[in-house]
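In this section we walk through a basic example: taking a raw amino acid sequence and producing a predicted 3D structure, encoded as discrete structure tokens. The instruction is simple. Fold the sequence below.
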Amino acid sequence: MRQSTDGRAAQRQETVTIMSPSALPDPMSWTELLRVFGGLVAVIAVFVAALWLLKRLQPGSRASSGPMRVLSTLHLAPRERLLLVQVGEQQLLLGSSAQGLSCLHVLSTPVPLEPPSAGQGLSAALPATFPDWLRRAVEQRGKAKP
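The resulting token sequence is shown next.
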């Protein structure tokens, strides 16, 4: 009975092929490096495409081209602000808070909005571009050193 079991075991033996190290692909070969680099480029491309889609599909980020526009915003607290909204020819003062929106006042005469002049407010203290700001900061630092 034992011999028949050994005979069956001998028949069931599988041939195992062991590859020699010379048969394996070289991990530093050009084809392997191109394959890895191509995979990296593909992953980065998918990541950039996902970010682009998220940005395009984000609600509320589209420019208003209809009859309603937010003319001005004044932040009062982290979750509270005043909004001056124009709907057609009418202007509304809205209050926005954590509880929701409420109409505070309907303006009888529209508020004329002027772009801030160059000599007023915070915009007068800050240069328009980063190179201008950097140049001014370097000049002030040079004057401060004795």
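Looking at the output, two observations stand out. The radius of gyration is 35 Å. DSSP finds four helices and four strands in the chain. In the next section we compare this with other chains.
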